[in-house]
Sequence to fold (926 residues):
Amino acid sequence: MTMPANAELISDELSEGAPSEGRDAELVGRSPGQLAWIRFKRDKAALFCTGIVLLYFLVAACAPLIAHLYGQDATTTYGLNDPTLLDDSGVPIGPLGGVSATHWLGLEPSLGRDLFMQLIYGMRTTLLIAFAATIFSTVIGVLLGLAQGFMGGWVDYVFGRISDLLMAFPQQLFLIAFTPVFIALLVAPGNAVSPLMRGTVLVLVQVILGWMGLGRLLRGMTLSLREREFIEAARVAGASPWRIIWKEIFPNLRTTMLVQTTLAFSGFVTTEAGLSFLGVGMIEPTPDWGRLFQDAAPYFQNDTFFLVVCGVSLMIFTVAFNLLGDSARDALDPKTVR
Amino acid sequence: MTQRKVIAAIAVVSAGALTLSACGSSSKTATKQDQGATSSVQQFSLGTAQDSTGPAVPVTGATKGGTAYDIEPSGFDYLDPTQQYVSNMLAISGLYNRTLTGYKIDAKGNTILVGDLATDTGKLSDGGKTWTWTLKKGLKFQDGTPITSADVKYDIERLYLPAQTQGPNYFPLWLSGADYRKVYAGPTGGKSLPDTVIGTPDAQTVVFHFTEAHADAPYAAAMPPIGAFEASKESATYNNNPNADGPYQVSNYVPGKSLQFVRNPNWDPSTDPIRAAYPDKWSFELGVDNPQLTTRLEQATGNDKFALSLSTAADASQSDTILNGSQYKSRMVSNYQPYVEYLNINTTRVTDVRIRKAIALAFPNQSLQKLYGGPSQLDPGNTLISPTVAGWENADPFNKTAHPNGDPTAAKALLTQANAVNYKLVFAFANTPRWQKISVVVQNALQQAGFQVVLNPIDKTSYYTQVGTVKNTFDIYRTGWGADWPTPYTDVPNLLGGGSNITDGSPNYSHYNNPATDAAIAQIKLETDVAKAAKEWNDLANKVIANDIPQVPFGFDKFLQIYGPGLGGVRYNQVIGTIDTGSVFVKQ
Fold:
């Protein structure tokens, strides 16, 4: 008798992640999370990307420590203080944009600050803003998505229309137009805008336009889960709505949330960098990754290395994080064939 | 003229290009590069009647014929000379429009003012209130009609028309006072100004009766609206199809895209001391932005071999390439623009002169020069008046020779004396990459001197409007200003005149208001000897800058550009800060 295709699939599924003994080994009960973790560990690319991403976070978090060990800082204008470092037009003297034992990645043109320090402090700013934006937009997206899907009725209608409205906004234009407006609202003219305030505003405008994608996805999933038998059963058993949301629906959304969040994070990193590139992000003297890239663009002929450092570092991070997101999705949801 | 802001185009580089260019990274050595022009002080004197006779002095090696090409980033808002004031339009005006006087530039770059339509630079009488110009014989419009003094009168009258708002209005102001538009509404209704204002005793003579003495009238008469206008050619489409009396006439014009000139058969070279007019055609390609424009001139392939850009300087990112490339040496223009860069100190807010002096002493001029792109872009200077203006003398009121990057110790001593250590200064700047960088340097330097600096970035499109508001909330901010003609007449009264001159949008951005200075300005305005007046203007400006410090001038803008190797006779007009069309020829 031919083995049913289904049986093959099930046995294969069960054996996944099992030690080398293969099928003969005793069957072990594993939670979906454990299975996902096992699958993830087997993905070489995923591990490699995790390493890279963690390295970026570590470097960014330890920037002051690195600066201390390295002996240079991010604010001193070395090139302006020492006339032998920059030429008359402000381009670093020496190969590869002034790379030396003192300045490992050379100097930034015109102001002559240490490029390595600018880069890691810039990463810190950018990653921090992107991280905060991701957290807040995820929280808002989850709360509103769940509420919409579970409660339905006018709640669904009102928040649905709000998210439609926000999604219809041209995002780039909104960010460019409203960042200065928010800053003007929060800070009286003639006073310094602290980097913290500017960062907060950047997080705020990104969150306002960043939660709808996840919110809509979760609303749809909640809507279909709400009608499933196990929810009905819980209702009949007299579970409170809070318990149903938290214990019955939410665990089914975690995978989607995690995948969406990892993808959103790298999106926020590039948006933040893009905002600085467009001139509405963090301003001098706060180091910023995106602005560094913007500053590098005009020097593509005279100081190519500067552009390469900024561009490649940002590119590696975005690619690594995107691959990581993909791998996480593959690990958590292996049935979807890409 | 207010400074045309060049918006630096941002090169967008894709990730693909990144990896490709990685192998081509530059290695620079500490060799001394070309510094660009150094100042040779000019007097811009008035030429004689002999200097004003045509034809133009031939350029060595020049040949007639060919087509000269020009690439420009923006289109021309106005071809109607009455509306032309911005440097890109001033640059092309001379191709088809002649004025009463004009600037004659020799091979060494020495510039004098000579008669263009007129036989000389004008004769004054009545203590400088009455100016008489005699027209040359044989002048014709492009349709062959002879030019008479009535046509000159009509051209000036056009400045009174309600629609004519963009051009320089010195002549109507001087003839009819500040309310000139109420006095007379222009020639369209058949009405004409009385002979007591502009007299035309015969077909060759035109007499202007100003209400006050104006020794600078010959220079003002070199601006595009002060020429001749054939009344029968007045039409709604005149702006796109102007009637020529210069060596070329418009043959085809697509606004914002292209503009072609061909020879005007009725232009007589023997009447023209300024224009040699060698090429048969001029062809303008409009809408080519920097840095592409500069790259095209560098590569000079095809017709770009015969191309130049009259009013657009090289993209700042290309200046190193141009200065270090030996192949560009023979086809490079590096010279002064008429603009001076100032840090204005808002004197309504910073009232203590010791604090203003401390700002001036601490200001990091040398670092700013570097951030502007080096000596090829900005020449350090500390005078209100530019070296492109007659009578300019260098001055060093804030000891920048000894301390090019500011003297924080001396500044701090002054601040302590004024009991204002930690004085809060709001620094407003246009939110551009360059000015963000400059804000870092300015903040560091001033904080070192004991100031507390609050940075206030302003959107670059509304920057001039915001700092031009009298009731602004900023203490220090940068502006640029260039003289309309090479005497300080359009510098000092505009920049330092108090009283009614302090309005929103006035060039007196620091709101400097000193009755003694106003009295001195009124007195120098009456001086009829231009050279003497120039000296007095310079002395006054230097005195005000040194003692009252409404502004801290920190440099003179420069023009760096290359042109196609197929062109010769390219000379630079320091007065308007563009390349001059008069002597350009196409190498055969």
Summary: Chain B is about 25% helix and 20% strand. Chain B touches chain A through 56 residues (CB under 8 Å). Residues 2-37 of chain B have pLDDT under 50 and may be disordered.
